[in-house]
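Subject: two folds for Thursday's group meeting

Dear M.,

Sorry for the delay on this. The cluster queue was jammed most of the week, so I only got both jobs back this morning. I'm pasting them in the order they finished. Each block is the input sequence followed by the predicted structure tokens. Could you check whether the formatting survives your parser before we put anything on slides? The first protein is the one we discussed after the seminar.
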Amino acid sequence: MQIPEDPTNSDIRDVLIDLRDVIDEVRSEVRGEIEDVRRDIKGLSDKVNGLGDKVDKQDYKFDAYQKGIDGMVRMSITIIIATATVAVLPSLSPAITAIINAVTNGTQ
């Protein structure tokens, strides 16, 4: 609406009423947009919470996997040590016996 060059109170009143109507329309549109944003934020929040649960489950799986790996490494080390003992001691025993005999014979 155009305001005349020399407005009357009635003209100003009409323009203010039109302005109020426009402001009410904008306000209701903004409220609708705010509600949409709130719903979107709520949806994102729910998804983030769901991801937190998935991460916790993955941490549990990783912990279980890590414990399994640790057990396998310990078992492998035990097997290696046992194998080395079986392989080395038979050939080392005669050498130790010879050293002991040499030391005891040399001191007499």
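Second protein, same layout:
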Amino acid sequence: MLRVCILLLALALVLAPPVGAREFVFSDPNGLFQTVIPEEWVYQTQQSSRSLSVFYGPGTSNLAYFEVLEPVSYDSPLEYAEYIVSLLAGPGGLTDFTVEEGPDEFKLEGLPAVSLTYTYQAGNGEKQREARLLALIGDGRAVSITISDSVSAFDSTRAVLDTILAEWRWLI
């Protein structure tokens, strides 16, 4: 009996997730990508749809969201980002919108992408900072990955983006 208990304990230790593995796998409802999200971030069913997946973080202002954008007629992620910036800065856009970094081109798991960081005045009067990545995936579609938080808390929230990108996998 003791041998069976020791064997079961050893098996449990081998199969247990490693310490610090506090993420869950998120797969896009369209089957386009997969990544990990920290377990303390909560999927928001009512704000999400087939083209928008929203997660609230543990803080008061942090969120992450993934959008499938279509139709997209741009061949360059940089040109598409400049178009998005013009909408955010223009009439009906975000209050006090300011680009802080980028747009910078890079490859997201082999696909052309661009990143930028900007700030704006949120509806609650607080200054908000967002890091947004846009990747062109073909067939007139793009994927947007956005991390958002108050300016004062953004640096710690940005680490979530690093986690998301480290585990990013295209399923297309």
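Two things I noticed about the second structure. The beta strands are 23-27, 33-38, 42-43, 52-56, 63-69, 95-108, 111-121, 127-138, 141-150, 169-170. The radius of gyration is 19 Å.

Cheers,
T.
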